[in-house]
Amino acid sequence: MTSLLSVHRALACRITNASVCSICGSSRGASTSSLALESIVVSSPSLSFKFVAGHGNSHSAAPRMPLLRRRKGQEGENIRSGVSKRRGCCVAQLGFTADPRVSIERAASALLKDAATLLVYQEVFRGAPAQAFLKILLALRRGDDGLKLLESYGEFFKLMAMGQHTSWEDYVLDAILAGEGNPFAEASANIGNLKSIWSSHGVPASLQAAAASDLDALQRLSITESTLSGWVTDIVADVRPEWRTAAASNLSCKTVRKIPAAAEENSNSFGFSTITAGDGSMVDKAELQSQEEHLSAETSESSDRSHHSIPSLIEQDREEWRKKIGGLWRWSEAVPMLESYYASHSLGLVGSTQVMQWRGGKLARDLKRFARAQTPCDLTIHASQRQALLENLQKHAFGFPAQHTLLCGPSGAGKSWLLNLVLSNLSRTTKLRIVTLPQTELKNVNALLEELARHWQLRFVLEIDDLSSRSGEETFMALKSALDGTYQEWPENVLLSVTSVRPEQIRSGTEEATELKHLFGVVLHLPKLSEEDFILSARELLSYRGKPELDVEDDAKQWLHNCSSCTIRTAAHFVRSII
């Protein structure tokens, strides 16, 4: 009866500030909650009973501990967790769980709740990688089978790699900086914009509080790939070791760590199954280590070659802001910082992208423009035009008044070449945004100007290549009306740069012929090349390609003799033919 009373007292105890549990002897913090016993069975020769209670939060992740009690008169006999031969006290669970599924399901459920409670940053989880992340959490919470869980993680890993997101945390931070569909970001970006409803009111306190709440939730959601993949492998215990290693990595990893020897007894230095020779003997581990180091060096060198281009000012600035916010103890502290960021960098794609294209009624990344790391060759024959174009665009880039620019000349004279050269140089030294407008989208130029005017704190160059009579009367009239301000005022933060072959041929309906050059403040002419200019340009192109020692004068003259035109385009064709 004494033992029963002891157990009864243990069941009734409430452990609030104790450092050691009086039943199991486990250490607890000062904030430990009440002890909750799931199932305790006490038996004796005369009676038995069972006490059932709920789970306790404080012990949910602790291992199961044995219960040690010594009965009076039973020398040397311990009654442990389990049933003794004659009588015993069986503790099935003291608020503990040895099954990792329970704690993982709880953690996944808590993260899903954080995602559901977002007030202004819901757009963070609209992207495909974020949706795949939520899919993994749902699978973990539901306790899906291993195959579905592995498929979900594989989809998340692939989407992150295809989007070239270095890590899940960087993805979340980039989405925060984008601020799309976010009233807090919208209000912050339009402070000082007299045409916005947010200009005089400032950022409401309610939006600041909502942003702070969301930022802390997003910080909790920014778990590492190793944590997420670790949850998967805790559920699916029989995955291969190389999968564990790869799944825990991301694009920010220059090298992937080796699998610890204790994790896989027969794994080699690469983390794959042990390699055997043709006669069945084991391959020397030192040789494998040497091969791995050599492969790692080649991979690192290849990676350096593929990423040798210098990041733009926008990319460098964005990386610094990610570090600022990610390094805070609590992301909610970044609310004033983000107000400043949105006010100076604007929102959405425009805030993070320097080269864009208007396509299908919206802005998109221009994947073809500036795809090469190198800029076009700076040719001597274009020196005066290049200087005039550069000075005009620099004025606009730094916020000073500038004129719309027209480059005209015969086909192949190097108009697009020159414009690309100047814009490429400016993109590396300024935060000037470049937007390409295809001729097929000219009729929607007013919609584009309205979109660019929203980003009033940024500067844009709107480029139209090879505008001519083939563009059609409707498209030309739309551009002329936009320049004249017929329907809306041309935005001050947008400068137009156009190339054209024969600008004097463009007419506007039944009206008198309208010369395109009369619509521009700066008109630059690029004439055909002389024979001397052609040879000089060919030599400069060869030097640009690393072949300055070649003597091409005679070959260039022969090429011109067989060619009908003397232009930069034919000079480039000539250089490619002899390299």
Automatic annotation (TrEMBL):
Protein name: AAA+ ATPase domain-containing protein
Stretches for region Disordered: 287-313
Lineage, top ranks: Eukaryota, Viridiplantae, Streptophyta, Embryophyta, Bryophyta
Gene3D superfamilies recorded: P-loop containing nucleotide triphosphate hydrolases (3.40.50.300)
Organism: Sphagnum troendelagicum
SUPFAM superfamilies referenced in this protein's UniProt entry, alphabetically: P-loop containing nucleoside triphosphate hydrolases
Compositional bias per record (Basic and acidic residues), positions renumbered to this chain: 287-307
Residue stretches in coiled coil: none
Span of domain AAA+ ATPase: 401-530
Record-linked InterPro entries: AAA+_ATPase, DUF815, P-loop_NTPase
